[in-house]
Specification:
- By secondary structure, the protein is an alpha+beta fold.
- Helices cover about 60% and strands about 10% of the residues.
- The protein has a domain of about 170 residues.
- The chain has nine helices and five strands, in the order βαβααααββαβααα.
- β3 and β4 form a beta hairpin.
Length: about 250
């Protein structure tokens, strides 16, 4: 076990290239309706077609698989809130199969032990988690397709819409327009989501460390006082924090 005094900064004598492939430029845009972005595109949907777009497939893979690490961080956070050991908390948390139940468990634990200031920050984190989880789940449970007129990006449709289209097609009903429900995920959009999940993973670690300092006496409280505004100002957390604060203030005025 190292103490803080054992650590020091040292510059490496050699420089090595990153082992990661070059990242795509990030786009702030969300997925785009197919009919508006590529109105003349002819799309082929089905299993395996995503492999025709290897860059997009790799990005979807990064997004989907990284969520397990988010859940590990959330389990650590729950263990801190409950004052329990991680293996026991992991067993309980893992038994809650749907996201709503997991969030309810987190919120119940937080409301029982956190003061108003910390609870406000925690609510911002929960809001941010829900937003990212929706992005991840859409990709994990959607259906993909490709078009020769869209050489790099991937076409996506909700599973429910693809099922409805399949049923309508089988019944020879021509009224269901699948194209109106299809979207294009550009590489830059997928890269942004992937990097934001990594960002949130680190932010969850920061929150757990901040809450752990509650048990460190005056030294911990001094750290928390300094750290709190820094956590509130983090990218994406800041917007969620302000929204949670406004909601709390409205609730007090009623």
């Amino acid at each position: 076990m190292y103490s803080v005094d054992d650590l020091h900064i040292a510059q490496a004598a050699e420089s090595f290239p990153s082992a990661y492939p070059e990242r795509e430029p990030i786009s702030g845009a969300s997925r785009k309706p197919l009919t508006k972005s590529f109105p003349n595109a002819k799309v082929t949907m089905g299993v395996g077609y995503i492999e025709d777009r290897p860059k997009a497939a790799a990005l979807v893979g990064r997004i989907v698989t990284s969520w397990a690490d988010i859940e590990i961080q959330v389990t650590r956070l729950l263990a801190e809130l409950m004052g329990a050991n991680i293996p026991q908390v992991a067993a309980v948390f893992g038994s809650l199969r749907n996201s709503r139940s997991q969030s309810d468990a987190l919120i119940a634990a937080a409301e029982a032990v956190l003061n108003e200031q910390d609870l406000l920050l925690f609510q911002a984190y929960i809001s941010r988690k829900a937003s990212l989880e929706k992005d991840r789940n859409d990709l994990a449970h959607g259906c993909f397709g490709v078009s020769v007129s869209i050489p790099d990006h991937i076409v996506w449709v909700a599973q429910s819409d693809f099922l409805a289209f399949t049923a309508a097609h089988k019944a020879n009903q021509k009224t269901f327009d699948l194209k109106e429900r299809q979207f294009v995920y550009e590489l830059g959009t997928l890269e942004r989501i992937a990097q934001e999940i990594v960002e949130f993973y680190n932010q969850l670690g920061f929150l757990t460390g901040y809450l752990t300092a509650r048990h460190d006496g005056p030294r911990g409280e001094a750290f928390r006082a300094q750290r709190y505004p820094e956590l509130c100002a983090q990218p994406h957390i800041n917007e969620a924090f302000l929204a949670a604060k406004t909601k709390m203030q409205r609730g007090k005025t009623k």
